[in-house]
Design goal:
The complex is a heterodimer of chains A (about 110) and B (about 120). Chain A contains no helices and nine strands. Chain A has strands spanning about 10, 20-25, 35, 45, 60-65, 70-75, 85-90, 95, 100-105. The termini of chain A are far apart. By secondary structure, chain B is mainly beta. In chain B, strands 2, 4, 5, 6, 9, 10 and 11 form a seven-stranded mixed sheet that branches. A four-stranded antiparallel sheet of chain B has the order 1-3-8-7, with no helix packed on it. Classes of the chains: A mainly beta (about 110), B mainly beta (about 120). The interface between A and B is medium-sized, with 23 and 19 residues.
């Protein structure tokens, strides 16, 4: 089965740029989607199909995908961005999620 | 604005069947184009996809749960449901319903189901 690998945690200084990676075999050939989840809340879609933002998601959130790594980039990080982030792809008619990355804003 | 809401018992005994329903408002399941899914999250853990159903009734399940999962749809009530049989403590989780396909743009708030005697 297809596996997605995310770092357990990423830290970023307030106002700086955070990058969260999602690794998978030839993930660049797949569409990658990203979710933000704050404690006690349902996940929220922040990036779909590698680099598209749903309406209402700030331009500070962007995504890229190439080779074996997809990346979620959060520019000008704010305290409110502190959350868990999950990547997701489809493989063999199955949705696969990464293990999640806890983003801490210092 | 599409909204999803899970409902069902919060406590299920081991070996019994977990049953949850997701009610969709602000859009019709019958309109097609979307896969209605169940996703769960074990306490303090990541997300696990359970399966989906299309309005026509076609389904696809996570192979790791396939033998115990049934997802059904009631278009007249704009609802879809999850049944997970022979539950154990390992099935204790927050269960979410969500709208797909491919990516999940609308989610329910989630409901915690605890498996315990």
């Amino acid at each position: 089965s297809y596996e997605l690998t995310q770092p357990l945690s990423v830290s970023v200084a307030l106002g700086q740029t955070a990058r969260i990676t999602c690794g998978g075999n030839n993930i660049g050939s797949k569409n990658v989607h990203w979710y933000q989840q704050k404690p006690g809340q349902a996940p929220v879609l922040v990036i779909y199909r590698d680099s598209n933002r749903p309406s209402g998601i700030p331009e500070r959130f962007s995504g890229s995908n190439s080779g074996n790594t997809a990346t979620l980039t959060i520019s000008r990080a704010q305290a409110g961005d502190e959350a868990d982030y999950y990547c997701q792809v489809w493989d063999s008619s199955t949705a696969v999620f990464g293990g999640g990355t806890k983003l801490t804003v210092l | 604005q599409v909204q999803l809401q899970e409902s069902g018992p919060g406590l299920v005994k081991p070996s019994q069947t977990l049953s949850l329903t997701c009610t969709v408002s602000g859009g019709s399941i019958s309109s097609g184009g979307y896969y209605w899914s169940w996703i769960r999250q074990h306490p303090g853990k990541g997300l696990e996809w359970i399966g989906y159903i299309y309005y026509s009734g076609s389904t696809y399940y996570n192979p790791s749960l396939k033998s115990r999962v049934t997802i059904s749809v009631d278009t007249s009530k704009n609802q879809f449901s999850l049944k997970l049989s022979s539950v154990t403590a390992a099935d204790t989780a927050v269960y979410y319903c969500a709208r797909g396909p491919y990516y999940y743009d609308y989610w329910g708030q989630g409901t915690l189901v605890t498996v315990s005697s």
